[in-house]
Amino acid sequence: MTAVTIRSFAAIRRPAGGRLAGIGAAGIISAAVIAVAALAAVFGPLIAPFNTTVPDTTLQFVGPGGGHLLGFDVEGRDVLSRLLAGAQSSMAGPLAVVVISLALGIALAVTSAWKRGAVDAGVSAGLDILFAFPGILLAVLATAVFGPGLTAASVALAIAYVPYVARVLRGAALKERSQPYVAALEVQGLSGPAICVKHIVPNMMSLVVAQATIMFGWAMVDLAAISFLGLGVQAPAPNWGVMISENAVGLQEGYPLPTLAAGACVVIVVIAFNVLGERLLSRAAQS
Amino acid sequence: MSRGRFLLRRLTMLLASLLVASFVIFGSMYLAPGSALSALTGGRALPPASMAALQQRYHLNQPFLAQYWYWLANALHGNLGTSIEWRENVTTLMGGLAWTTAGLVLYASLIICVLGIGLGVLAGLRPGWVDTSTLVGTAVTAALPSFAAAMVLVAVFAVQLGWFPALGNGAGLLDNVRHLTLPAIALAISSLAIVARVTRAAVREEAGREHVQTAVSRGIPYRDIVRRHILRNAAIPITTITGITIASLIAVDAVVETAFSLNGLGAFLVKAAQDKDLAVVQGISLVLVIAFVVVNVIVDLLYAALDPRISLGTAPA
Hints:
The structure holds two protein chains of two kinds.
Chain A: H1 2-20, H2 24-47, H3 79-115, H4 117-130, H5 135-146, H6 150-177, H7 180-187, H8 192-203, H9 205-228, H10 240-246, H11 249-252, H12 257-286
Helix pairs in contact in A: 2-3, 2-12, 3-4, 3-6, 3-8, 3-9, 4-6, 5-6, 5-9, 6-9, 9-10, 9-12, 10-12
Chain B: H1 3-31, H2 36-41, H3 48-57, H4 64-76, E1 82-83, E2 88-89, H5 90-125, H6 129-142, H7 146-160, H8 173-207, H9 210-217, H10 222-259, H11 265-275, H12 278-306, H13 308-311
Antiparallel strand pairs in B: 1-2
Helix pairs in contact in B: 1-4, 1-12, 5-6, 5-8, 5-10, 6-8, 7-8, 7-10, 8-10, 9-10, 10-11, 10-12, 11-12
């Protein structure tokens, strides 16, 4: 019995130690914050103790008490419940942005590093041009065309982030491309795409994960800003950006708790992603 | 690469970027659901003859590329079309708003340059509590989104303390500046932190170099060492990060203007996007993209002026 316990402990600890090694206490705390936010994103709508959309104007801006830990918002809904339920759209949007822009960025970076020459020059010039569109501006443009909503805004942001991702990863891919093992695989007759997919991309993964972590923070700020502007997630759906803007009237009325609570959620999660991303980046640079 | 060729290449890229950007802006509006004709008539049914006249007048019966060409030619002449919502020329509408936006971005840029670089240099030269507190403070503010900063600033300085007005533009120069102070801080704060951090790292690195140690041991006044040896060499990363963050203000500006109910281009763009006033969206997007690209090119040119190796084609160390 004891032996089994010890073995399972070791089995749990080894990979955890491997993954979290070298990111320091701040990195581990950040990872924990992100894990809590991710759990809230998955289970938040289920565990939210009160209804999140039905207004009750008699409870407008009523302070905490009676099981309502953070009080009520501008329309008399439970703030904590809306924060929990809003975690889903607040986290899912940035996730989509990161996945799309990484997929495009990796494909472009590896292709131009592999082909070099004209392809590389063409891709670089195209990315330089794409740089002309700041993320938020492209997202506003997209929502003007396709109508407000998380989908249009996320896709537009993802495209705007591609040049940033692709530039960083292209450097890494070029470095990998010049490694002797790649030449060895070529001599063995492995095809270019196979080397890229099976060897170069897996070897870039530590940098990709670090880059993804940092980008998640950016995407979260930008998407929250877009929802704040009324162009992203549409009220009355719960979302942190929406909550900041709809409760902003509370600032003038001297009841800032709901808007500041939603703002704090964004800021804390973004700081966690930034810190963890920086730690992962310096760890990737060391290895 | 000679300096002339570097300039030429950068300017060609600038024109290419602007051309593609204008194409994307026009093309996306062309793809937008709802016909341009019904937008012009406001959805009313007009006699076929007037419909045909409208089509003729706005070139709506012509192929896409021809329409793009007419739009671009008009835009180059300063005519960006008519706002459906306001029934007025877009250029005229924008003219009145551009000053607020320009003022806000310049004010925020000034704050970033003075406080961001100043704080960074101070922290870089003074290890100890100045350095530590700068590092901790900037780590938090760098992650502060502009709209969250706006909320906190309004809650503290406008509502609690009453030092600054919370909303609106104000009248007259002094009142304008007073109204723009909180927005400018909200716009600048995260960029300021990033600039301070990069400046600190650059100054710290240069201060530890051998030629600086040599200069110190030769008894050159510290003030001269800082100015001529440390800051001159640290200027390259500082210029780059300052330029990039100032350019990015142009995009974030819409958020801050909306948060403080300012009458500027950004807030107007957001409103136009909500109302599907496409001519206004096109016009403001075009102007903001031009501003963004031009600032980026200026940074590149400054960068080349500061580090001759770049225009000579050799990689910087």
